[in-house]
Design a protein that fits this description.
239 residues; TIM Barrel; 8 strands; alpha/beta; 15% strand; 47% helix
């Protein structure tokens, strides 16, 4: 993959027109755009179709988490939209993830359409060890818990996980280089960490084994967004 192929720009805005403006602005430097909860809630499937018409890919970041049948139906809709990748919560359990993987594969074969990559969200990068224990009641160490969830995702037939770059090395070592790791919480050394707790720079993340890094605020909130984006791409290339 080229450095640009490894970068996912998060369209962390809540209206259609602003999102389209951002896509046009970064069209030359970004191949994959993330559509998350806020944008999808206001703009819906229309924004995905328009991104595709502009020749770009979509990472649909809705973190599906429900009973197996409900999530499988949502996965069917995402697959028919033609997204490049979407995610589910690993905490939905093995049965839910397995149902999604099987349903999507069967649909893609039956309708002769591309099968999107399916990745499982492990632990949000806004959660640290203390919160994991005190608020979620998980006694395992963060790394051990993430690997447990990644193991469930792997056995269920998912293509990879969404995890902190801190955990990427161990995930790759245990589950193989083809098991995708997508990492948010990426913060260049020259930006603020915002509400993230477990972070790495783009260079550190790629060197740790991350396949795709997700960047939003460090670019969109920067005084020179395009300059910031290119610095990040340069860091990826250097790694």
């Amino acid at each position: 993959m080229t450095p640009k192929d490894r970068l996912i720009l998060a369209l962390d805005v809540d209206d259609h027109d602003t999102a389209i403006e951002l896509i046009r602005k970064f069209h030359g430097d970004v191949e994959i755009f993330k559509v998350g909860l806020a944008l999808f809630t206001t703009a819906g499937p229309r924004i995905i179709r328009e991104i595709h018409l502009m020749g770009k890919k979509v990472f649909l970041d809705l973190k599906f988490h429900d009973i197996p049948n409900t999530v499988s139906q949502a996965a069917i809709a995402a697959t028919r939209l033609g997204v490049f990748m979407f995610n589910v919560h690993t905490l939905g359990g093995f049965e839910m993830m397995s149902s999604v993987a099987k349903t999507v594969s069967a649909l893609a074969l039956k309708e002769n359409i591309s099968r999107p990559r399916i990745v499982g969200v492990t632990v949000l990068t806004s959660i640290d060890q203390q919160r994991l224990k005190d608020e979620m009641g998980v006694e395992l160490r963060m790394g051990a818990f993430v690997k447990h969830l990644a193991s469930l995702a792997k056995r269920a037939g998912l293509d990879g996980v969404v995890a902190s770059a801190e955990d990427a090395g161990e995930i790759k070592a245990r589950f193989g280089k083809d098991f995708i790791v997508v990492s948010p919480g990426i913060r260049p050394s020259w930006t603020s960490i915002d509400d993230q707790k477990r972070i790495m720079t783009p260079r550190q993340a790629i060197r740790s084994g991350v396949d795709y890094i997700v960047v939003g605020r460090p670019v969109l909130s920067h005084p020179d967004p395009q300059g910031a984006l290119r610095r990040i791409i340069d860091e990826i290339a250097d790694a």
